[in-house]
Amino acid sequence: MPSSPRQAPLALDAESFRTLGHALVDQLAGLLAAVSDGPVTRDEPASAVRAALDLDGPLPEQGTAPGPLLAETAERLFGHSLFNAHPRFFGYITASPAPIGILGDLLAAALNANVGARALSPAATELEVQTVRWIAQLIGFPTACGGLMVSGGNMANLVCFWAARAARAGWDVRQEGTGGASPRLRVYGSAETHTWIQKAADLSGLGTASIRWIPTDAEQRMDVDALRRAIEADVAAGDRPLLVVGTAGTVSTGAVDPLPAIATVCREHGVWFHVDGAYGGFAAAAEGAPADLAGIGLADSIAVDPHKWLYAPLEAGCALVRDAEHLRAAFAYHPPYYHFEERVTNFVDYGPQNSRGFRALKVWLALRHVGASGYRTMIGDDMRLARALADAVRRTPELELLTQSLSITTFRYVPAGLAATIGDPAIDARLDAINRELLDRLQRGGELFVSNAVVGGRYALRACVVNFQTTPADIDAIPPIVVRVGREVVREA
After folding, report:
1. Rounded to whole angstroms, how far apart are CA atoms 23 and 164?
2. Is residue 37 part of a domain?
3. Torsion angle of C-alpha atoms 162, 338, 146, 148, degrees rounded to 10
4. DSSP E strands: which ranges in 136-261?
5. What does the DSSP 8-state code read for residue 293?
6. Domain count, the chain
7. How many Cα atoms are found within 13 Å in the side-chain-facing hemisphere of 182?
8. What are phi and psi of 267, to 5 degrees?
9. Contacts of 95 (CB under 8 A, 6+ apart)
10. 213 within some domain
11. pLDDT in tens, the chain (493 residues)
12. Domain containing 203 — which CATH number?
């Protein structure tokens, strides 16, 4: 080969990179500052979005100058996206991204560490170890635990599920599997448990029929007496109770299961106690949180999502297991092509990924930026805003409050003429239809974005506040917007 320098089309010299980066950061600062002045989302069909971003053409043969490419792409993306950073985004549980986390992702990408083995990522590995420890400290979980950063709540819960399976199956389940296993493994969760448990039972070989769905009380909390009876019945039938999932903040209503009581049942029967705290786990740090969140410290494992109530940019989940050896026992293999020191932390041994990005950096930076007290304040503010919404709903004659817990408030629109006939099956069906149409219009309209829940068989609108951009004025705007659009739905029907 000739000795002249290689000409790689992707390469940028330091000055070009600096110029492009400064221009992009300047542009993003303006675009982010303007988010709250525009709609939460725009009602555009897929074809219009593709056309706006020029996504129907073939792969170009020749490249494009990076400056105009970055500027044009940023402008188009911000012009045709939904913004969970918008102060009136109340849908699902996706937080506004912390600015320092945005910059942290840039720094992490520049380093491009593969945080699978410490030899490949010495600084990133040690930083992730500290991040895991800080997260445990913040929520009241033992800081000597094992854990790792993952993509989100589903994966964090799956990691803990697989750790429980390896630890409590009663045989070498990693080698022998679960096909035709005897005794049959059983897992338990309330009827409000997130669907990750079905994925976990499926992917782990137990099958979804292994799940015992435990009923809930009037507040959507697990019935602990029913749990105890289910475990005892399975033991009597010769099955092996493996794991109980207690939920710290259900998706629909934010209900917190009676975690300390569940922990007691698990200890009595030698069952792994897992807490799905993907949403509500971080509320344990805040004043005014449900007392049952103290049960987090009793769990064998817990899943939390920093990209929810730590406001980290997506993706950032975290799996915590009381005994780190349970993670290694569930995931570690040591083939001859790995030459890694086994006496140090190699996250490849803690979860299913080999190649792992530097997710911890944006979380670590934010924890350093505001500290535990900053998070306690912001999470507490979100819960207070949700309670303020509940109060505003109570004061609004055409709205009916259904539930309020953590930072989730559920309610529905009830036209004045129908309020006296609630309970009539035909009227209830009509109210469900009205609120479904109302939700669709609200989501497409762009003024605010809420999601839905079904509470006691009633179709509800659901507002979740996990957004440090949201103000009391944004909360006050919800009832009049919902009533106005609700009246339009009824009038047009």
Report:
1. 49
2. no
3. -80
4. 146-150, 185-190, 211-214, 240-247
5. G
6. 1
7. 3
8. -65, -40
9. 84, 307, 308, 309, 310, 311, 312, 466, 467, 468
10. yes
11. 567 778 899 999 999 999 999 999 999 999 999 999 999 999 999 999 999 999 999 999 999 999 999 999 999 999 999 999 999 999 989 999 999 999 999 999 999 999 999 999 999 999 999 999 999 999 999 999 999 999 999 999 999 999 999 999 999 999 999 876 679 999 999 999 999 999 999 999 999 999 999 999 999 999 999 999 999 999 999 999 999 999 999 999 999 999 999 999 999 999 999 999 999 999 999 988 999 999 999 999 999 999 999 999 999 999 999 999 999 999 999 887 777 777 789 999 999 999 999 999 999 999 999 999 999 999 999 999 999 999 999 999 999 999 999 999 999 999 988 877 888 889 999 999 999 999 999 999 999 999 999 999 999 999 999 999 999 999 999 999 999 999 999 999 8
12. 3.40.640.10
How would DSSP label each residue in 39-86? -S-----HHHHHHHTT-SSPPPSS---HHHHHHHHHHHHHHS---TTS
In a domain, 271, yes or no: yes
Residue 321 · residue 327 · CB < 8 Å? yes
Alpha carbon distance 101, 115 (integer Å): 18
Does some domain include residue 486?
A: no
Q: Which DSSP helix (H) or strand (E) runs through 387? A: helix 360-394
b/e map of 190-204 (b: 16 or more CB within 10 Å)? Answer: bebbbebbebbbeeb
Domain that holds residue 176: 104-371
